[in-house]
Amino acid sequence: MVQPPHTNLVRWYFSLAIIEGMGALFWLTLIPSEGSLMGLSTGRLLFSVPLVVTILLLSWVVLNVWLRPAYSANWAGRLANYAAKDSLYWGIIALATAASVIGINLLGTRTSAPFAQAYLVRLAPYSVFIVLVSAQTLIAFRWLRYGRSLRVFKPYQAAFKTSLLVLGVLTVIVVLILWTRIGLEPDITGWGTPGAPLLPSQVWLALAITLAVLGFSAIALPLRSESPDRFPLRLPAWTLDALVFALLWLGAIWRWNAEPLKPSFFAPEPTPPNQEYYPFSDAASYDLSAQRLLIGEGFEQVIVRPAYSAFIALAQGVSGIGLGSVIAWQVPLLAFIPPLLYLLAKALHHRLAGLIVALLAIFRESNSIALAGIIDVSNAKMIMSDMPITLGVVWFSLIVILWLQKPIERRVYPVLAGGILAVFMLIRTQVILLLPAALLCAWLVLRRQPARWLQSSIVIIASLALTFSPWLWRNWQRTGQNLLSDTQPSGAIFRFSSLSLNESARLPGETDEQFFSRMRASAMREVLSHPLETTRIINAHYWHNQVSTLLVLPASFPILTEQQIPPEGFSRLASTWRFIRGQCCSPFTYVRDLPYWKIEWRGTFPPISWLPLFASLLLISVGIGISWNRWRFIGLLPLFVIAVYSLGNALGRISGWRYNLPVDWIGMLYYAIGLAQACFWMAAFFANRFIPASWETGTVATPGADQVDKSSPWKGVVVIQAALIMLVASIPLAERLVPARYHTDSIKATLASLSNAVDQDTLQRFLSAENAVALLGRAMYPRYYPARDGIPYWEWQSYFFRDYSRLGFILVGSEEVPVILPLKEPPAHFPNAADVLVLGCKREGYIESRLVAILSESKEVILASLPQAWSCATP
């Protein structure tokens, strides 16, 4: 008798299922328990009933399919009919896939609650059984519908080979890092923890949203050019991209604003009298520069972040002084990062990859805001330059990629690229390192057209120089030198100098120039006398940046990792919802249960991270391989970017944390491309047809192909270049146009107006004393601290620990100076950014105030709580 097709497939399918079920049952019996019947408790026996019943049913089926040919033929025909029906076929594929995902995640779930852990241990055999049966169901139904042929993957052979090669290279690098410990053993300085991580649940959610959007668009808005008349409504590609861009931008604004502001080092916990968040440290430095501009004093002679401080000044000049005003402007601006990543991933691969990486960027930044003060982060709600630089790096990378894809048609793009680089150099000069990365990539792409490469390179450099020229002119006028930023030695000099780690204090009578010269000489001596050690340090920081980039991606495979499942389980809806909100998808428990964000981490990876990190490496390899296969060197531009930027950090002896933030999205980018391509491969496998990475074509793209050499776009070049120059020129122009708010000659008039509060003779006697001063200005960041409380950061004397209660603030006027007003109780009224008159005594690094007058209509006067109120004698 001739066997019907697929009879043996059906027989082996059920035979494997019963073997898997018996293995799961055996595993269940091996779990230790306190019982009486054959060593098993009553609960264990009841827990085994579903598995036993399933095994018995499978046994009956297996006996019939092997002993009764007609029965097996009937099963084969019935399952083949099911597989032939589209709705049943795809429904079973979806259910089996979902069951596999759920089972795998349950296998990795851990909890410290004994009740929950006991159930998870007993569920493990069921989870393995479900995963194995689901996996063989996926293969079997595809076999039933299309047979064993895998010819559908023939067009992907080159991509497979490239991805495997990349995976091999990355694996070798990982093995060398683990063997040598380079990049894992922390350096004594500049060694930051990884940035805010992505949660596994967020990756699944991003993928689910993306596939749902793709499915809806395939139904309602067909994108394929071969079916223009299938539906009456059809959007052009550029309109669709604009719509997605806008939705991603709005989604990022909504999600990031939904996360409340948290206390952190750069925005400490609010204190009396106002209970407001104020910037601190670097954040306060950038904001104080903005305040100088707003009060008409202009920036410092040499300012570190002119473009960023100008943006902060604009936000507060329009919306009012305060961190809230800056956030209200900054979040919408930085929310362009996810949609720009969408365009970048789409340019390299497909809209599917673009949506995934954009959603991951939104989720990741949301985690960063939520984790402020818990781990080291720099986020969109801090006055820090790291996120703005991230925006610049993404934007620059996108422009260069789009230009190299069509270098003839897009000849204006080099002008825009050079201008973007110049503008963001006014935030952080380190971005100049992107220029050699872009020029090298452009050479590899246009190496057969050297004249075009040279012409474009000149345009980029010229645009950069022209855009930067107004600021260089400003610095020349103010200092007599062509300066880009601060003339003081960079942190790298201190970090490489032995003095920075041992005796960095100034010598008696040493001037600034002498001190900085000594530090430079010390650093140079250290580098030249210990070249191997210097090389080791640079290598360590370089590879630590790459490790930090990898750890942004999920480092634990299951959705739940060491979570606190409610003791009562999930029987109550309220406790279940609290669990989902506070535990299941919480970044707090994620960073708590994994070691990578702890100071004591020394580069050891727990076993729970091995599989997910390898999966991340695999997907990154696929992303790099696909990008190379389709665009060759253009697809590797992000790798050039992260390589040169990481090297710049390493040369400065810094790595991880916010230092790596401007480029750690590159790991997410290739991860998303790899994830999207895996979806394409799965779709190709189950649909048995080639599905290209682009709806239009599945062939390798050739840069410059099928382009028309148009006339030179001089008008566009002139308009763009003029706009860029005007943008930069507006910064020094604002210094000249904003009128001065405080005048020295108005101090006497202000003192006279205080006659009702303080005796004028007393004031005059006080001001005639040595070290007594009277200053007008804007009081920034008023914070009240009781005795022996404050912020342990000595550079900010206003808030440093003191033995007495006091109000501290920063006075911004003709000079910027910390002020301390001794008070027994916090004042009832002292608004931030109030115009004040300060009378006090000069101390080392600050003013010890005797009187502060708030120059409002009421002329409120606050006197110091000191016995020697009108004396500058040292206590």
Give descriptors for this structure.
single chain; 875 residues; five-stranded mixed beta barrel; 29 helices; 6% strand; elongated
Q: Give the count of helical stretches.
A: 29
Q: Provide the low-confidence segments as ranges.
A: 35-39, 222-228, 559-571, 695-700
* Shape, per Cα inertia axes: elongated
Overall domain count: 3
Query: Fraction of residues in helices?
Result: 55-70%
Q: Look at the helices and sheets and give the structural class.
A: mainly alpha
Which strands sit side by side, in order, in the main sheet? 1-2-3-5-4
What percent of residues are in strands? Answer: 5-15%
Number of DSSP strand runs: 6
* Rounded mean pLDDT score: 85
Give the biggest sheet: 5 strands, mixed, barrel
This entry's quaternary arrangement is: single chain
Mind explaining what this structure looks like?
By secondary structure, this protein is mainly α. The chain contains 29 helices and 6 strands. The protein has 3 domains: 7-148, no CATH class; 158-260 and 333-480 and 484-556 and 594-687, no CATH class; 746-863, Beta Barrel (OB fold (Dihydrolipoamide Acetyltransferase, E2P)). The chain has helices at residues 7-30, 42-67, 69-84, 86-108, 114-146, 157-180, 200-220, 237-258, 282-294, 306-319, 323-334, 337-348, 351-370, 386-405, 413-425, 434-446, 450-479, 491-496, 498-501, 512-529, 531-551, 573-584, 587-593, 607-631, 637-651, 665-687, 714-737, 746-752, 760-767, and strands spanning 772-785, 806-813, 816-822, 834-843, 846-854, 860-863. The chain has a 5-stranded mixed beta barrel with strand order 1-2-3-5-4. A hairpin with a 5-residue loop joins strand 5 (846-854) and strand 6. The longest helix is centred in the first third of the chain and has 33 residues, at 114-146. Residues 35-39, 222-228, 559-571 and 695-700 have low confidence and may be disordered.
